Amino acid sequence: MNYDDKNMEIVINWYPGHMKKTKEQIAENLKLVDVVIEIVDARAPISTSNPDIDELVKTLPKVVVLNKEDLSDPILLKSWMDYYKSKNYESVAVNSLTGKGIKDLLGCLNNKSKALYENLARRGRRRRPLRVMVVGIPNVGKSSIINKIIGKKSTQTGDRPGVTKGKQWVKLKGDLELLDTPGVLWPKIEDQDVALKLAFLGSIKDDVIEIEEIAVELIKYISKVKPSVLSERFKIEEDLESVMDIIEAIAKKRGYILPGAEIDFLRLSSTLLHEFRSGKLGKITLESPDDFNKAI
């Protein structure tokens, strides 16, 4: 693999056919729900938020769930919570693996239920469950969060984008019904910085672009926003600035060298992406509210 730090540019544009169908399903079923929960990745809340959702939701109440909070920078996580509050959105930080934050989310939904009951009573209508639609782009943890809410495994989950299939109503004890939908991306990703963040997080499948290219861009990104991470994780003592120098140092430290002294780029790239996505590189948030003054 040859890489030119200055001249190489990755162009990512991905919109499978089933995404268009899912968007149509969401629009069709919004008339059935009272509240929308949008799941985003706490490490990149705006980049993992579908801009089509607000257009589709319109006046319906929306709760933003920042999942994978355990993998995000705690200072920036608080900044994001304050940011959503300033935009009049309710937000909840959640770890879908441990269930942390789920009680806060249920408390938020219970408050929405009370408002629904009061509205139904004023109109002389019978009391019914609060109907909630759960939306989000692929691989942000929608199914895992639903499973934590209901306390059992009811929807197909996995660590690959697009695992959840079709539309599913999930009835809970009490007065709550959830509508799960597959992950949906927008038709064209024009901002390549956003596209790269989605690739780093695994929201865009690794087979869409070569993982070696994603890994190189991730090294560039981390070197810019949190340079100490790579040196600490891979025990690199030298002060390296070149991407290729960093790659060579990591390869030597991990023994990712092929016969002929060639770097095993595939193994190195797979390891780097896995360690970033699993949090082994540390708590890294890819964007700050200061970057999005007019985001929502």
From TrEMBL:
Among its keywords, does the record have GTP-binding? Answer: yes
Cellular localisation:
Cytoplasm
Q: Which InterPro entries match?
A: G_CP_dom, GTP-bd, GTP-bd_ortho_bundle_sf, GTP-bd_ribosome_bgen, GTPase_MTG1, P-loop_NTPase
Ranges where the CP-type G domain occurs: 20-187
Q: Which domain of life is it from?
A: Bacteria
Record keywords = Cytoplasm, GTP-binding, Nucleotide-binding
Similarity section: Belongs to the TRAFAC class YlqF/YawG GTPase family. MTG1 subfamily.
> What is the purpose of this protein?
Required for a late step of 50S ribosomal subunit assembly. Has GTPase activity.
Annotated PANTHER family: MITOCHONDRIAL RIBOSOME-ASSOCIATED GTPASE 1
Q: What is this protein called?
A: Ribosome biogenesis GTPase A
Q: To which species is this protein native?
A: Acetoanaerobium pronyense
